[in-house]
């Protein structure tokens, strides 16, 4: 049985690439930098933020960017512009839990970037059994060791876990760790061909399709 469904955050549970592009350009403007192009943002999407910013804005002062980013992030979250989980996605999480599966979040975001998601009044409160991020894992995707803490804490075997994400780096990490992998194409940023170098157990066009995809995989031989 697939006992744990592990979910990526950006462009998987929430569609965030477009709004993050706007957010990060707002930060660049506030620290006196030129805005980046959408193309460069999309080409580096899925990388840890500060790593990506060295390509999105070469020469940027990362310390200044990080400080301003936290301010703008709080503004966007407070205005309801970022990390809005669609009701149908919440229902999908509830259906997975009702089937007896643990639902967890694993993201490359830093602790500061997920702090609001951990608030007791957040819609995800009570729906996730664990949240793994750059603050409580030693390695980040696409390194397969990104799942080390999760596997150690749960005692589950890799084949009892499934990861759903939107990027080839997500697939690489899951493949390397021995987890099953489902690719979400809902954002439109990536196509099936982008995953040709990796094993994908299933593709979904929208997050709620995850429930059926997991059930089908659960009926297959391990």
From TrEMBL:
Its EC number is 3.-.-.-. It comes from Nonomuraea mangrovi. Signal peptide: none annotated. InterPro entries: HAD-like_hydrolase_sf, HAD-like_sf, HAD_2, HAD_sf, PGP-like_dom2. Pfam families: HAD_2. Keywords: Hydrolase. The lineage of its organism: Bacteria, Bacillati, Actinomycetota, Actinomycetes, Streptosporangiales. CDD domains: HAD_like. This is HAD family hydrolase. One of its GO terms (molecular function) is hydrolase activity.
